[in-house]
Write a structure and sequence with these properties.
Blueprint: H1 3-16, H2 20-38, E1 45-49, E2 58-66, E3 75-77, H3 78-84, E4 93-97, H4 105-132, E5 137-147, E6 150-155, E7 158-162, E8 178-189, E9 192-198, H5 202-212, H6 214-217, E10 222-229, E11 233-239, H7 247-252, H8 257-265, E12 270-275, H9 280-287, E13 295-300, E14 310-315, H10 320-324, H11 329-338, E15 341-346, H12 350-359, H13 369-372, E16 378-380, H14 414-434
Parallel strand pairs: 2-3, 11-12, 14-15
Antiparallel strand pairs: 1-2, 2-4, 5-6, 5-8, 6-7, 8-9, 10-11, 13-14, 15-16
């Protein structure tokens, strides 16, 4: 065989990430198919030898030595076999050299089809095996081209489609751009393995934090939960069993260097780091930062699986805009982070609420707004999603101007909130200045 032939084989192995043995098996199968097309039939057992010292491939026809031949395609008489090999006996296998001088056009075309098909199958299997064990990991990708909303990525020599639903809203992609993607899962389909990659999955933030923060990677700081509004803001609750280790400081880094690297990879998405607490009241109050929470009452703690976990949060009028956040974002993320359905009330509603809760303490159903006689300013229910796992969510410790804007209540009493916008605009502006550098 010519050196160029084996060089081409090695090139295919490198480009397709297929083993050398698999490619050689494919070539041998193709040559066997070509031989059967021109000189034999499908029943025959053919073996192909590829040797660097020979001029070309050797074709061997394998037959069983018998006294009486019943199937000439698979058997040969003892008398005929002894003409080829003297020391052969009945029951032995004999290999006959039937290497043709040349192959016809149809046989060559059939061999080509076999090679293309087998290599395609091998490439798909290689892709599946390569990525199946890397689910829930971070992958490096490079943009190959952009077609409308679909982006074609190159991930370790493989082209992968990056669908618009998995892209960070508003993020710009261009040829040559390098990004990090989260591999959610690998599914085997009739068209080959399907890689489900995402830039919106909450675990993307978790993996980036693990990559940038050694304390998280080593387990000294644990990410307890995470909530994310992709492209806008994420909240991450962290904790540490070491008393002398500040989990928030470890994540933010000196002058915010560590968390800034994570936010840069997320195209400017804010990542807020908050300290996790076993006390749900304290955790909920911390999750609603930068707003100052006056009091939290746990209505349903989740002891009964039939009843959703629910808490009532009481804030002063001046703190309400920040507690709600723009378009209800702050309270919604806090609800996702803590796992509690949160209802926001004005502080003056606290006495009436406590009285009503005491009366209904033994009831299993949710305390309705009508029963309380007063509606919450805003409500938020934790997002339920199959792709969300108990994983950390982050906080840069900085309060943006947008969050201090008064937001529309996401659930009830929208009119009351609209009225509050006009009344509390001056107080909201004062809070902007007060919380301008929160956390850093």
């Amino acid at each position: 065989m010519k050196p160029q032939f084996f060089a081409a084989i090695n090139q295919i192995c490198d480009e397709k990430s297929i083993s050398y043995e698999r490619v050689m098996e494919t070539v041998k199968a193709a040559l066997a198919t070509a031989y059967r097309k021109d000189y034999g039939n499908k029943e025959q057992e053919v073996e192909i030898l590829l040797d660097e010292n020979s001029e070309g491939p050797t074709v061997l026809l394998i037959k069983e030595v018998v006294e009486e031949v019943e199937n000439p395609n698979l058997e040969i008489s003892l008398k005929e076999a002894q003409k080829l090999k003297k020391d052969v006996h009945a029951g032995d296998e004999i290999k006959i050299d039937v290497t043709p001088m040349e192959y016809g056009r149809i046989a060559a075309q059939a061999a080509k089809q076999v090679i293309l098909q087998r290599l395609h199958e091998a490439e798909r299997e290689s892709l599946y095996d390569m990525f199946k064990n890397r689910e829930n990991e971070l992958l490096s990708a490079q943009v190959v081209r952009v077609e409308g909303g679909t982006v074609h990525l190159r991930i370790e020599k493989h082209n992968v489609l990056f669908m618009q639903k998995d892209q960070i809203p508003g993020e710009k992609y261009f040829t040559g751009k390098r990004i990090k993607v989260y591999l959610d899962k690998v599914v085997a389909t009739s068209r080959g393995p399907q890689l489900s990659i995402s830039r919106t999955h909450p675990n993307l933030v978790v993996r980036l934090l693990e990559m940038e923060i050694p304390e998280i990677a080593e387990g000294e700081v644990q990410i307890k939960s995470i909530a994310r509004d992709a492209g806008v803001r994420s909240k991450v609750a962290v904790a540490s069993e070491k008393e002398k280790l500040d989990p928030i400081g470890a994540c933010i880094g000196q002058k915010g260097v560590r968390i800034q690297k994570v936010m840069e990879e997320l195209s400017g998405e804010r990542v807020d780091i908050i300290e996790w607490s076993q006390d749900p009241k304290e955790f909920i109050a911390t999750a609603l930062q930068p707003a100052k929470i006056a009091e939290v009452i746990i209505v349903n703690s989740g002891d009964d699986a039939r009843i959703k976990k629910r808490a009532a949060v009481f804030v002063e009028e001046a703190e309400r805009p920040m507690a709600i956040g723009k378009k209800g974002q702050n309270v919604r993320l806090a609800s996702d982070l803590t796992g509690y359905e949160l209802d926001l009330y004005n502080l003056e509603q606290l006495p009436a609420f406590k009285e009503k809760v005491t009366e209904m303490m033994d009831k299993d159903h949710r305390i309705e707004d009508a029963e309380l006689g007063i509606a919450p300013v805003a409500s938020a229910v934790p997002t339920v999603s199959d792709e969300k796992e108990v994983t950390p969510r982050s906080n840069s410790g900085q309060a943006s101007d947008e969050e201090e804007e008064v937001a529309t209540a996401p659930a009830t009493d929208v009119a009351a909130v609209e009225k509050a916008k006009k009344e509390e605009a001056p107080e909201a502006e004062e809070k902007k200045a007060e919380f301008g550098n929160y956390g850093l």
